[in-house]
Automatic annotation (TrEMBL):
GO molecular function, one term: oxidoreductase activity, acting on CH-OH group of donors
Residues forming coiled coils: none
PANTHER family: CHOLINE DEHYDROGENASE, MITOCHONDRIAL (PTHR11552:SF147), GLUCOSE-METHANOL-CHOLINE GMC OXIDOREDUCTASE (PTHR11552)
Signal peptide feature range: none
Family: Belongs to the GMC oxidoreductase family.
UniProt protein name: Glucose dehydrogenase [FAD, quinone]-like
Organism: Diaphorina citri (Asian citrus psyllid)
SUPFAM superfamilies in UniProt: FAD-linked reductases, C-terminal domain (SSF54373), FAD/NAD(P)-binding domain (SSF51905)
Domain Glucose-methanol-choline oxidoreductase C-terminal residues, every copy: 140-281
Length: 294
């Protein structure tokens, strides 16, 4: 998922602002659906016969409201100077995703809130609000692995993500970027006076701005994972060396142990997964009931 940003000359308050007002919801336990009014849309890249790109359009975010909302843009120069912290920020942002320590996250947000926008998009124009457009490659070809760290069952497993390992995945995201640009500059959005804001990174400075190579570089710098991992416990026949459970969700070679969650999907879904997770759980419950019928 690569995050792009545009600015709208507009001043609507959304539930997104409310979320930040209710300080404390911005933790790992928060719900994204309360967190933002999030629109989504599906597209097909040239590399696929079915929809493989999902776009998330994040709600208006205040950048300089003078009302106490986050990211208030009082001092543009301060934001400019913050670019030096960019690499540190990205490293910390990545660790937010895995940390369970909310105090750490709170500190981090306080420390870095003022530079978030700048690190990703360059200095933020005052008097405007931001909308994020995030193309998400739903059918990546890169494959990760989940392996045991040790023989100790209390040790967390090792997650080897291998994001963008296959060049195809970056190319799909590049198409996503181009589609997002077309949407944001489309006739219908003209009345909002949208300005595209280019993401920058010192590592991509050598590329011509807005060229394909520039975006492929940016994609490698800024792509984050969407929250839809699946397939670490694949369903398949016993003859498949990668399969963990059979079509009854029973673990191969182990009696009476079933797995019913997103891990059993043999391939990545090209949609939000929760309905399929719930369906899997209900199907599993029915199979257990059927097996134990007297
Ligand atoms: C921030 C976020 C936003 C999302 N938004 C959407 C969305 O809008 N739409 C959508 O369709 N999907 C969304 N998803 C994805 C969706 O929530 C997941 O795909 C889905 O919850 C996966 O279900 P699961 O049962 O596989 O795993 P989980 O829901 O993660 O359930 C795993 C459970 O196992 C428990 N557990 C872990 N370890 C142990 C242990 N050792 N012993 C006992 N219990 C344990 C955990 O506490 C947890 O309750 C979102 C995910 C995230 C993180």
């Amino acid at each position: 998922m690569i995050q792009l940003t545009g600015f709208f000359k507009s001043n609507y308050s959304t539930i997104n602002d409310l979320q930040f007002y209710f300080d404390g919801f911005e933790t790992e336990c928060s719900s994204t659906e309360f967190y933002s009014i999030q629109l989504t849309g599906f597209f097909k890249s040239n590399y696929s016969t079915i929809n493989d790109l999902q776009f998330y359009f994040d709600g208006f975010e205040t950048e300089c409201s003078n009302t106490g909302y986050r990211s208030e843009c009082k001092d543009n120069q301060k934001l400019l100077n913050a670019t030096a912290d960019h690499d540190d920020f990205i490293a910390k942002l990545t660790s937010i995703r895995t940390s369970r320590n909310t105090a750490f996250i709170d500190d981090l947000i306080k420390k870095y809130a003022s530079i978030v926008g700048n690190a990703i998009t360059g200095p933020l124009p005052c008097g405007r609000r931001r909308v994020g457009v995030r193309p998400n490659n739903m059918l990546p070809l890169s494959k990760g692995r989940l392996v045991l760290r040790s023989a100790n069952p209390d040790d967390h497993p090792k997650l080897i993500t291998n994001y963008l390992d296959n060049e195809h995945d970056a190319k799909v995201l590049l198409q996503g970027v181009r589609i997002a640009q077309r949407i944001m500059l489309s006739e219908s959005l003209k009345k909002y006076d949208v300005q595209l804001v280019f993401m920058t990174s010192p590592s991509c400075a050598g590329y011509t701005k807005d060229s394909d190579d520039y975006w492929l570089c940016i994609i490698r710098q800024f792509t984050l994972a969407e929250n839809h991992p699946t397939g670490t416990c694949k369903m398949g026949p016993a003859s498949d060396p990668e399969a963990v459970v059979d079509d009854q969700l029973l673990v191969h070679g182990v009696e009476n142990v079933r797995v019913a969650d997103a891990s059993v999907f043999p391939t990545q879904l090209n949609c939000n997964p929760i309905s399929v997770v719930i369906m899997t759980a209900e199907k599993c419950a029915q199979m257990v009931l059927d097996k134990n019928k007297v």
